[in-house]
From TrEMBL:
Signal peptide (UniProt feature, chain positions): 1-23
Protein name: DUF4136 domain-containing protein
Key words of the record: Signal
Length: 234
């Protein structure tokens, strides 16, 4: 199903939908760089090493002594763990890491000393969308389905899944107070987005199986995970 292949790239579609609104806030100037040494340690985790900082040792405290089971898929650089606590399953994972340069985001010289452009990017991209933005996102997803050569691309099930994708952008985002530069959680997709210096991390945190997720505990787990990540370079 084509829509399933779209789901991991939802952030890209949202970013495209927001692109025109970001244009007057974020500038790309060749040769302008911002040194954020506090989290330079993350920059070594690129290519085949990307995500390998996300180890059982890193997240052990989150499991409160329960046995942790890894479920990694290294070809896609996805690092996941799960455990049971009081009979309830907990999931956390690392999905991706992007730098400001990889996202083609740089500050202009006037902004360079005062803000982190990745925070602006994350706040613009990972937030509840207006009805107009929802419409634009739906159009982008429709275009992707129309381009698909797969017979199922226009099926009822694909359209239903597409509706679920866009629904995850409405009344879903919960900003988190944490030790990171910025963190926000999507309570519908269970995705956690964290800005650490020049790195934007995409993770997930979920308490309970699909169809029976404990939302408040999932948010609490996401916050604990963000706080744990803030210790990475200390």
């Amino acid at each position: 199903m084509k829509t399933i292949s779209i789901l991991p790239h939802l952030a890209l579609f949202v970013a495209l939908a927001m692109c025109s609104q970001q244009a007057d806030k974020i500038y790309h100037i060749e040769g302008t760089t911002v040194e954020r040494s506090a989290y330079s340690c993350l920059k070594e985790f690129t290519g085949e090493k990307e995500g390998k900082f996300f180890t059982e040792q890193l997240i052990r405290d989150l499991a409160n002594g329960n046995e942790i089971t890894p479920d990694h898929y290294e070809p896609a650089q996805q690092y996941k763990f799960h455990w049971k606590e009081n009979g309830v399953i907990h999931f956390i994972g690392f999905e991706a890491m992007q730098t400001a340069s990889e996202l083609h985001i740089q500050q202009n010289q006037a902004q360079a000393q005062n803000s982190n452009p990745l925070i602006d990017y994350a706040k613009m991209t990972y937030r509840d969308k207006t009805p107009e933005e929802q419409l634009r996102l739906n159009r982008l997803l429709d275009e992707q389905l129309d381009k698909s050569e797969e017979p199922s691309a226009s099926s009822t099930s694909d359209k239903s899944l597409q509706e679920n994708v866009t629904a995850m952008e409405t009344m879903a985002y919960v900003p988190l107070e944490s030790g990171t530069d910025y963190a926000v959680y999507n309570r519908k997709s269970f995705s956690l987005y964290v800005v650490l210096g020049d790195a934007l991390l995409t993770l997930n945190a979920q308490v309970g199986p699909y169809g029976s997720v404990d939302e408040s505990r999932s948010i609490e787990l996401a916050k604990k995970l963000a706080d744990k990540l803030s210790e990475l370079c200390n």
